[in-house]
Amino acid sequence: MKAAVICVALLAASPLATAQSVSDPLGVEVGQPPEIVQIWEEFYNQQTMDVEVIDGVCVQTPMSMRQFFNLHRTK
């Protein structure tokens, strides 16, 4: 039980938990220090590659981390 309480407390204090809102689920909440906002925005704007296999052919799609997480998030 104590481990569950610690886990919940760590999750509540996590930047990922405070970085989501209804309007922009991967955005950084207003009220965060500017340094934190800048770090998260830089992370979300990094370029990555999404790879899909369509009819046995690998299709690579360049996108930002924000687009990748929006595309692959669970609902």
Tell me about this structure.
By secondary structure, this protein is of the alpha+beta class. The protein has one domain (2-72). It is 47% helix and 21% strand. It contains four helices and two strands, in the order H-H-H-E-E-H. The chain has a two-stranded antiparallel sheet with strand order 1-2. It is elongated, with a radius of gyration of 16 Å. The chain starts with a helix and ends with a helix. The model is unreliable at 3-19 (pLDDT under 50).
Helix-strand layout with pairing:
Layout: H1 2-13, H2 15-18, H3 34-44, E1 47-54, E2 57-64, H4 65-72
Antiparallel strand pairs: 1-2
Q: How would you summarize what this structure contains?
A:
This protein has 75 residues and is α+β, with helices and mostly antiparallel strands. The protein is built from four helices and two strands.
